[in-house]
Amino acid sequence: MNLPFIRQLFSLAALLTLILAVPAGAQEPGKSVLPTTCHASSEQSRTFEEMTAPAMWSCEAEGFRTDQPVGWLRFDAAYWQAEPTPRFFFSRIARFESIAFAAVDDDGTMRTATFAENEATTFAGGPVFRLPLPELRPDTAVLLVRIDRPHSVPLLAEARLAADPLSPHWSMTQMMVLAMVIGMLLLPLLFDLGFFAVLRERFVALHAVMVVAMICYVLFAGGLISLVVSLPVAVVAIAGPLAWAVGCGTSALFLAKFLEVDAQSKQMHILTKAVGIWTIIVPGFFALQLHATQTFDDWLYFYTFMPTIAVISAALVEAVLRGSRSARFVTVAWIPLILASIERLWRGLGVYVGPPELDLLLFVATGFEVTIISLAIADRFFAIRRERDEAVENAEELSRLSERDSLTGLMNRRAITARFPELIAKGFDTFALVDLDRFKEVNDVHGHQAGDAALVASAEALRVRGGRDSIPVRLGGEEFVVLLRGPDAINRVEALRRAIPLHVARKIPGLEKPLTASMGVVEMPRSATGGMTFEDFYARADTLLYDAKKAGRNRMNYERMKIFSEAPAPRSGRRNRAA
């Protein structure tokens, strides 16, 4: 069980080595990408002509805004004069309504092109899309880009121009990292399915949902889905953030179920579940990037994750302080993920602009988290199985104790009543009801301790002398039952009756009188026992016992029965054997 996890940890180390080997922003040889120069934002009514004024622009590498209906980008000719002339516009996949380009020449001539969201091309080169540019000529002074309804800061901050239609894709090494992360996520998913088949715990199902959400996030946010199928920008743009919201919300629900019962206070348990539902619903709604919510859904998507991060962090701290073993596993798994999520949140809010390769940290942290949590689930699986095995053993022991007389160790009435049909089927067709004669006098004269000792001695006599083909039972008080099978049952049960006073006398010296026993015995051919219950046998044996007591005690009354169709009554087949 542990070997696959060890292999996964080595894989993680290899992934980190690959990431460190590829500097942020590095491109493959022969592919030149030009950075964004300046940016601005405006109301819907602003035109290209109005945006030619230099005062309208900010050329800092931060401050990109999506809280206005239109985002603007400006690329000056100086940035591509020493490079092949750009022919394509690339940017991070996110929702937008339309993108318009204006190539402005030195003499003021303007060539424009406008594209709707569904005209953008996604391709297997990372989470990016591509649009063709209007012709850029030697005398073109500037390229203006108007993005209507931009829903993401990276859509503006990571926009690039290039001559090669495949230029801005992530390096092959980085795409391999994402593919390896997907492979790492699939194995824990298989473990979850296997664990759930054995251990029907809800936290296993929640972790499986979380893993599926993380797989979808890596596929869509990392752009790997484009290796399989070409999807519209809107689908890819929504699926990634939505999968992340579902995965994070499910993580909180998983935490509430996974931690031990005493690892959380009642208030924290409720808060953890509430923040899980919050994360699925609220950030999940803003992940849809509706054009009606464009001016605020980007920053609200990130801000609404803050309560989730705060509550989960507080829940882990509380659980660790309470000594939770499961919380220690989860803390190790989630610290890298929480830190990577905060970094991505800052970039998403435009606090700073970093290279898109930083997203690999989040993807690798996701693979690390799922691996460690799977290890934690395996640990919890074995712990729960041990607990359940112990519970089953305890239940079986309690069941055994509930079926045994606490004083003598013999089977009690509850047990014999339940097993009686089975014993009848196995041939125990002789029923002997035993009652100790004048037992009350032993208690009155010698005390209850002596009385208990007499009961124990009588039980030993019945158990030791009875052999394998007899089952002694204590019904209560001084009353016993012995079930017998095999030949010569009447003589054997009479020998048991005679053994009682001898065994008691040896065990309890000093009794004034011998402690004798009376019996009522019913013997029935197996062919006639069908349908008879313990109570049926008991009623007939009790009548015979009463007659034995009435005849002077210290004797056995027995009856061989052929059928069971009459109420107990004196019959010609009844015999009496006295001491």
UniProtKB/TrEMBL annotation:
Q: Which NCBIfam families does the annotation name?
A: GGDEF
Extract the Pfam families matched here: 7TMR-DISM_7TM (PF07695), GGDEF (PF00990)
Q: Fetch the InterPro entries from UniProt.
A: 7TMR_DISM_rcpt_extracell_dom1, Diguanylate_Cyclase, GGDEF_dom
Q: Which residues form the GGDEF domain?
A: 427-561
Stated name of the protein: diguanylate cyclase
Print the keywords alphabetically.
Membrane, Signal, Transmembrane, Transmembrane helix
**EC number(s) of the enzyme?**
2.7.7.65
Locate the transmembrane regions by residue number.
Answer: 175-199, 206-229, 235-258, 270-288, 300-321, 328-346, 358-378
- UniProt signal peptide: 1-26
Enzyme class, top EC level, equals transferase
